[in-house]
Structures are given as structure tokens and as C-alpha cells.
Amino acid sequence: MSRKLIGPFTQILTMDHLPLKGPLQDEALQIISEGGIVVENGTIRKVGAFADLQKEADNAVLEEITEPLVCLPGFIDCHTHICYAGSRAGDYAMRVAGKSYLEIAKAGGGILESVRKTRAASQKELERRMSARCERLLSEGVTTCEVKSGYALNVEDELKMLRAIHVVNKKQAIDLVPTCLAAHMPPKDFVGSPSEYLQMIASQLLPQILSEGLAKRVDIFIEDSAFATEEARPYLMQAQEMGFALTLHVDQFTPGGSFLAVELAAASADHLEASTNREVQALANSDVIAVVLPGASLGLGYPFAPARKLLDHGAALAISTDWNPGSAPMGDLLMQAAVLGAAEKLTTAETLSGVTFRAAAALELTDRGVLTKGKIADFIGFPCEDYREILYQQGKLKPDLIWKAGETA
């Protein structure tokens, strides 16, 4: 049995005892000054005042913190596309020169360019590129990251992507949560309708994913350039019947897709930049986590999703990067969350909740996102004395120390 006491931290923000839905005030944050964390076999055993824990845990190995450090749960990036090959710098240049996302896609760029490059890449190349991105994520305090397929759009290469994610997940310290996004958009080389493509995916790809244990989640992009709601519904219902959890790309450019996410009780509805009051209210009245993606707004030059309105109506709000080669090439969850918070007037508590326990809920993970007994010992330490410095510096203050399952990463 391995037990150790880590501390003293100048402050520990446990993110515990906070509601999943609705607005949050900073006064609700549980802050432990001069705190410590007892870890046993990768799990948090106790969080409290360091001096008290020293007296109680006299048989624990001490991992002493000698500099000012503010401790938070490890960040969770709950919507990314970091398994890909190639660059879309050409798309970006066209976009800042005035072309729209949809115009670039219709001209042969966009997602289909990433499809060509990812299909051409070997599994080993995808693993290598993704491993480098995972190392960067971990250095920035992200200890859990969702990763989608969706840049292959055929059975063989979607499996290649998911297998690459599976391999990297076993090699990297960061935890990866795989999601099948074979329904990213209809491929140009498929002979048949979008509905027939989805049926092919459901009958040929999803059973193989289950057989190999490659993913437990299915996603789809509902948009004019991808799939219509009526095309998506039977596919998603079939995936649900097979045991997959659902998450949906909705309301990015046109509203309405959120209603399908609510109808099917999806784990999350992601993007939401085009959501109107009707979609906001529907999400707030449901258990679907609203995931906003400031990186896509920054990459496309579009307005942010209505994060403030979602919270004020009572929705559960998570914040993620949408890190991908096209619309959101930046990554950097902390910077994006800080900028979104400033633009949408989110409290520090709301922003930090959006990248910790509320992001965990979007992935249906109940074992992380807060620092309390029984949770995985994923936590990060920032070199400052006041937790408010973290968002104040808008992503430029990075964690000095990262613990994954209680071990420094």
C-alpha cells in the first residue's frame, strides 16, 4: 500500500460541493489555505489542512511543496479532434482573406482536406503526432482529454484512427476518452445518400468498434454541410440501442440541432454558437451538458456561444477547445476559457467549473474533476498565491507541477 502526503499548498480549490447546473458565485468556492492531499494507490484519501493531515498521516511519505502553489483538479478537455495528419494553414489563410468556412468546404478544403491527409497517414504516424499533442496538453494541466475520430469517413481508416487513440492512451499519462465521429460529414467518395452512409457506418463500423473495445461514444455533426436532423435521428437511435453514449455537434452555424440532443438524452450538445433562446431553454430544462468551444470562435472569427445566457437559464456549462486542424488549431484550454470568461462575463467559479467537474459530466465521468475522497488523484499546481491569478493572466500562467493518479507527470 502506497500512501503519501502532498503539501502544503498555498491554496487548494477542491471544486467540491458545487451544483452541476446554473450560475456560480466565487464565494461558493471551497478554498483550503495551507492545505494538503493524502494520496493512496492513485486515489485521493483525504484533503484538508496540511498541519492536521501531518498529525493524522504519520505513516505517509511526505512530498513537500516548498514554493507558493495553488492546487486545482486536473483540467478536462471534453471535445477535441487531436488525431489527425497534416495542416490546414491554407484554409486559415483563405478564411482570414474573407472566405467563409462553408465556402472553403465547398471548394474542396475544410474537413475533406484533413480526410485526405489522415487516410494517407499510417497508424504509426497518427500515434506519433497525437502523442506530441498529448504531451503538450499534459504540460498545460489537462489530465483527461476526449479524442474524436472523423477524419477518415470510411470503415478501414476510422478504425485506424480509433486504434491509434487506443494505443496512445495506453502509452501516455493523460487519460484519453475516444469517440467515434465517422458521421462528421458525408464523404465525397461514398456512392449513396447521407442516410445510406450513416446506415453503412451503423452496420459495418460500430459493431467492429464494440468488438475491439475502441470507443463507447458516438458523435455526429448536424449542419447544412453535414447531416440533417432527420438523417441523424435513426443513426443515433441505432447507436444508442447498441450501447453507445451520444454527443452531438449542434448549432454551430444554424440553430435547431440542440433539440435532437435533448430528445435523445445525449450526454452533451457541443458548439452552440448559433443557439437561440429556444435552444438555450431546451438545454437548460434537460440533463444534457452544454459544451461551448471558444477555440472554434477564435479560429473562425465567429461570436462565442452564449455561455452567460446558458448559465443564467440554468444549463450545465462545460468549456472545451475543439482542438482540430481546421477551425480550432490553437488548443490551449486555459487560455480559451479565460478569454471566453472575459467576453461572456463568467465568474472565476463558472470558468473553472467548466474545465473541471462540469467537463467531467460531459464525458459521464464521475471519478474526477473535484478534489475529494475517492476521486482519482489528478491535480495541478500553479506558481502563485491567489487562485484568481490563474484566469487573470489569461492562460500565460501555466502549472508548474502536474500529478496524474498521484504521481508527478
Question: Which properties best describe this structure?
Answer:
409 residues, TIM Barrel, 8-stranded mixed sheet, 8-stranded parallel sheet, 16 strands, 38% helix
Walkthrough of the structure:
By secondary structure, the chain is α/β, with parallel strands linked by helices. The chain has 16 helices and 16 strands. It has helices at residues 50-56, 89-96, 101-106, 111-120, 123-139, 155-171, 194-212, 229-241, 257-263, 277-284, 294-300, 307-313, 333-344, 348-354, 357-362, 388-392; strands spanning 3-13, 31-40, 43-49, 61-64, 70-73, 75-77, 142-148, 175-183, 217-221, 245-250, 268-271, 289-292, 317-319, 379-382, 401-404, 407-408. Strands 1, 2, 3, 4, 5, 14, 15 and 16 form an 8-stranded mixed sheet that branches. An 8-stranded parallel sheet has the order 6-7-8-9-10-11-12-13.
Assess the beta-strand content as a share of residues. Answer: 15-25%
Class from helix and strand fractions: alpha/beta
Using the 3D structure, state the CATH architecture of the largest domain: Alpha-Beta Barrel
The total count of strands amounts to 16
Summed up, the helix count is 16
Query: Regarding CATH, which class of the largest domain?
Result: Alpha Beta
